[in-house]
Design goal:
The protein is 0% helix and 49% strand. The protein has no helices and eleven strands. Strand 1 and strand 2 form a beta hairpin. The protein has a five-stranded antiparallel beta sheet, with no helix packed on it. It starts with a strand and ends with a strand. The protein is mainly beta. The radius of gyration is 18 Å and the shape is elongated.
Length: 153
């Protein structure tokens, strides 16, 4: 079924399928832009802004996923934006889905609230990572970047 999308309709115990052509990937370049979150004290909270820009030249034709990976000592805690973001791996990994249609030179941002573990000392710094995954993306060199989580007083 490569290149086709299947739609299922359940009617009682019968499942009927209809297929149609899948949207062809666009010629887009999604780029993750580095944004370091504000410092937070031990036991406090900050927000990771996972910022993705479409450098074009076309609008995206496929959905894309933003993945946020947190280092040890930091845990994602919702609510998230968009609401369909899902935490995995004990809150150390968050996946957020965005639909097709991100226009050229426009941006999308996933907001991931993060709690600093109470035993992380003030002055500590740790690296997290944001990545974008899309069938449309033509340049993998800018699909991810690190960000720094800082622990204040």
């Amino acid at each position: 079924m490569a290149g086709r999308v299947a739609t299922a309709l359940a009617v009682g115990a019968v499942v009927m399928c209809a297929t149609g052509p899948a949207a062809a990937p666009s010629n887009s370049d999604l780029e993750v832009v580095r944004l370091d979150p504000a410092a937070a004290p031990p036991g406090g909270r900050t927000v990771v802004h996972a910022f993705v820009a479409n450098r074009g030249p076309e609008q995206t034709a496929s959905p894309f996923t933003v993945v946020v990976r947190l280092p040890s000592g930091f845990t994602a805690q919702g609510p998230y934006f968009p609401e369909d973001c899902r935490a995995e791996a004990g809150g150390r990994l968050v996946r957020c889905s965005f639909g097709p249609g991100l226009a050229r030179l426009r941006t999308a941002t996933a907001l991931v609230p993060v709690r600093v573990d109470a035993d992380v000392p003030p002055g500590a710094r740790a690296e997290g990572h944001v990545q974008v995954v899309s069938a449309d993306d033509r340049d993998p060199r800018n699909d991810g970047t690190q960000f720094t989580l800082a622990v204040g007083c």
